[in-house]
Amino acid sequence: MSLLIRNLTRTKIKLNLLGDVEKVVMKEEKIKQNTEVSLVFVGEDRIRKFNKIYRGIDRITDVLSFEGKNEDNFVDPSNDVAYLGEIFICVPRAKKQAREKGHSIEKEVDILLVHGLFHLLGYDHIKDADYEIMKKKEEKILKNLYR
After folding, report:
1. SS3 72
2. Does the chain have fewer CB atoms within 10 Å around its N or its C terminus?
3. Which residue ranges form the domains of the chain, and what is each CATH number?
4. Which pLDDT tens digit goes with each residue over 3-19?
5. 147 contacts: CB under 8 Å, gap ≥ 6
6. CA proximity to 117, closest of 95, 142, 80
């Protein structure tokens, strides 16, 4: 499992558990295939623009996920890695949410990464029942990470 990280903000973020987060989610979901995910830290303007373009919602959000699926479930034979997609985390929003919840920005980034990974794995929360399933899975992962 590979997590490619790019920070397009001036905020320094400690990458405490990020690699562990991905490993725990993949293990919990019983995904044994080598995977790759791009994680990009962005500011409010960029995430708002993406939210408007791709979701039709003209407002800032904390995290956006874009699946890297293709029709053939293509795996690059040169490295046997399946690309799951991209996750964009809005750093200013993560900072604000961390303050409101009384924990570090690193923990908030871990929470948002877990949420984004579940979206890349096909989970959604449009319906209440789906929200409950996804929320329970997220809580279980975070409980395991923060014992």
Report:
1. coil
2. C
3. 2-145 (3.40.390.30)
4. 899 999 999 888 766 77
5. none
6. 142
